[in-house]
Amino acid sequence: MGYFEVEALSNSKLNLIDPEMGGSPLEFAEGFNQDEFGPSYSLEMGDALHKMILEPELFITADFYRPTDNMIKWAEAVEKLGGVTDANILKGRELSGTYANLKDPAKLIKKFEDEGGVNWVQFIVEGKGKIVLKPEDYFKLNKAAEAVSKHPRSQDLLSGENEKEIYFNYLGMKCKCKLDNIKIIPEENLVRIVDLKSTSKNPARIQNFVHRYRTYRQLGFYGEGAKSLPEVQALDNPKFEYYVIQAGLAPPNRCVVGQISDEWIAKGLKEIEGLVERVKFADKNGWDHSMEEYTNNYILTLNAPDEE
To answer: Is residue 275 domain-shared with residue 183, that is, in the same domain?
Structure first.
């Protein structure tokens, strides 16, 4: 069974019940957040960069470029209809609501064939595990990876074990985490956890990024998972260090490395305790409403936000 198939509490799952991140008990129960911070394109690019740097053996690219989003939508409709036939191409265009200005059946079929529709249908069926990007995306990834490799600290910080899966019990819950990189250094009584991030924004805004996406909480959760490892338990009250490597996907493709303070990690762990309490409360009282709604006659009290 793969990591994502294991039923356990993860940091990303906890985000789904965090009201400050647009979460709720119902979204947690259904495993879906309607208020994601970024488009799926950002997640795909981040995943591709991870594979390129941390798991190059999994960076397997398809032999064609990614088509436009509209073509992908059209191709997905064709695949659901049963595959590539002239009739399915025309019906799929209608169902997808794309290219409504084109009326000529012959031109529609030719467009689908020439602009990657057939390739994408084949990719849906046979391309599991492969990465399909636009030409400009390959350029962005290579530039970002180059920036990471040139950073004075990156090679050392990424010298541990990549993509470490950990399954552990925490706060009475079965949990899991997947660390980008962990290095246990017995001679220094040190455990070092590193997370690799990509951004299309200025990587120098790493402080804002760590706050907005609660990366300090994510790495604190990872630290609690690492404490369950036998090789960590063999150390004598080890010191933990937490780093974020932020790679820019846009020019000038900078790489910035930040170390998260112990105080910020402690704040994240406190937040995790509160979120776990929300999970336990919902499990006992129901998933349709938040803790605040249940305890205040189903009414939320709205106060002025704290000044940033």
So the answer is: yes
DSSP string, 55-103: -GGG--B-SS----HHHHHHHHHHHHTTS--HHHHHHHHHHHT--TT--
My answer on whether 24 and 122 are in the same domain is: no
CA distance between the termini of the chain: 44
Q: Total structural domains in the chain?
A: 2
Which of 81, 100, 126 represents a domain boundary (last residue)?
A: 126
Angle between helices 69-80 and 105-114 (to 10 degrees): 110
How many Cα atoms occupy the beta-carbon half-sphere of 16 within 13 Å?
18
Q: In whole angstroms, give the CA distance from residue 135 to residue 144.
A: 15
Q: Give which of 122, 123, 115, 92 is closest to 105, Cα–Cα.
A: 92
**Ranges in the chain, pLDDT < 70:** 32-40, 307-308
Q: Which of 11, 42, 36, 65 is CA-nearest to residue 247?
A: 42
Give CA separation, 160 vs 54, 68, 113, 153, 180, in Å: 10, 38, 46, 13, 9
256 and 217 in one domain? yes
Q: Which domain holds residue 114?
A: 69-126
21 phi-psi bin (left φ>0, alpha ψ -120 to 50, beta other): alpha
Residues in the chain: 308
Both tokens assigned to 200: 């299309």
CB contact set of 260 (below 8 Å; sequence gap of 6+): 210, 215, 216, 219, 242, 243, 244
For 217-250, what is each residue's pLDDT tens digit? 999 999 999 999 999 999 999 999 999 999 999 9
Q: Are 145 and 74 in contact (CB under 8 A)?
A: no
